């Protein structure tokens, strides 16, 4: 059974049109990204590799899917906007201190990865990002036990990634020592 929404009065129609402009901008952005990726894919060689798939297959696939999604988003936005959206959740405004914590984690990771090595710098990134997210949701974050759990969890995530890349895939990542295991 399909239900239709009641007709909008003039003020409701104006509100619906003004609400669809950000949605239209998103659609245009996705469409332009797909087109730009297609332009980049043109320059990639199409020589078939393993299994008959060339190196330009994935860029073309992504560009086609993004272009199709952009067209659908534009159509939806221009024919009345996204329907049946849930009410926005979360705070009315961004929590900037949390943003600063996460950004600090990312920037310190990039700055210290060659000094501290992959495992320690990624652990630091994880700890700072989790602290920012905890503070943004109002969870307790200052207890030493919480910090210790975050450090251990970050190391337990970063270490297997490091070892997988360096030992099994033979991809060089910066380590703290020259042994390749830390």
Topology at a glance:
Layout: H1 10-42, H2 57-78, H3 96-116, H4 118-136, H5 144-168
**Total strands:** 0
- Assign an overall shape: flat
Report on the biggest sheet: none
* Whole-number tally of structural domains: 2
User: Structural class of the helices, strands and pairings?
Assistant: mainly alpha
Mean residue pLDDT? 83
- Low-pLDDT segments: 1-6, 8-15
Task: Please provide a written account of the structure.
The chain is mostly helical. It has two domains: 14-78; 96-168, no CATH class. The protein has five helices and no strands. The radius of gyration is 24 Å and the shape is flat.
Quick structural gist:
The protein has helices spanning 10-42, 57-78, 96-116, 118-136, 144-168. By secondary structure, it is an all-alpha fold.
Structural key phrases:
single chain; 182 residues; mainly alpha; 5 helices; 66% helix; flat; disordered N terminus
